[in-house]
Amino acid sequence: QVQLVKSGGGLVQAGESLTLSCAASGSISSINAMGWYRQAPGKQRELVATITSDFRTNYADSVAGRFTISRDNAKNTVYLQMNNLKPEDTAVYYCNADVFENYVGRRVYWGQGTQVTVSS
Predict the structure, then answer these.
(1) Distance CA 67, CA 19 (A)
(2) Angle at Cα 23 formed by Cα 21 and Cα 29, nearest 5°?
(3) What pLDDT shows up at residue 94?
(4) How far apart are CA 69 and CA 51, in angstroms?
(5) Radius of gyration (C-alpha) of the chain in whole angstroms
(6) Rounded to whole angstroms, how far apart are CA atoms 68 and 81?
(7) What is the C-alpha to C-alpha distance for residues 23 and 19, in angstroms, rounded to an integer?
(8) Does residue 73 contact residue 22 with C-beta atoms inside 8 Å?
(9) Hey, is 104 helix, strand or coil?
(10) Residue 90: which residues within 8 A CB-CB, separation 6 or more?
(11) Is 87 helix (H, G, I), strand (E, B) or coil?
């Protein structure tokens, strides 16, 4: 069993910054890619950013230049630094991890959602 536990989130004003973190724990051999997704009310879940085990990143066009994804492989943790937040960033944010789990194999796990609300 692998769990992804998030911290961060909350209510901020436009232009402010917020950092999310997500730590994977359990029977983990290694983690390939980790990522962040978000879902606003009435909208489909969308990719925000991903990062591979060798630190290659990609971002959605809507957040590129404002958000930074990073990871600490020793802690199996992925971070999302969100700068210059906009009201349209308001959503429930989810982390995920492409995990090589001991005795199980490769699996994709999702963390619990974290609400981020940006007021104008």
Answers:
(1) 9
(2) 145
(3) 97
(4) 7
(5) 14
(6) 5
(7) 13
(8) no
(9) coil
(10) 40, 116, 117, 118
(11) helix
Q: Which residue has 């066009």 as its token pair?
A: 61
What is the reported pLDDT for 5?
86
How far is residue 37's CA from residue 39's CA, in Å, rounded to a whole number? 7
Local structure of 114: helix, strand or coil = strand
Coil, strand, or helix at residue 89?
helix
- Other beta carbons within 10 angstroms of residue 72's beta carbon come to 11
Residues in the chain predicted with pLDDT less than 50, given as ranges, are none
Residue 114: how many CB atoms within 10 A of its CB? 21
Query: Which two structure tokens, joined as six digits, stand for 61?
Result: 């066009």
- Residue 60 pLDDT: 98
Token pair belonging to 42: 């009435």
The per-residue b/e assignment along 28-61, b for 16 or more CB within 10 angstroms, e otherwise, is eeebebbbbbbeeeeeeeeebbbbeeeeeeebee
How far, in Å, CA of 48 to CA of 83, rounded? 13
Contacts of 46 (CB under 8 A, 6+ apart): 37, 38, 39, 60
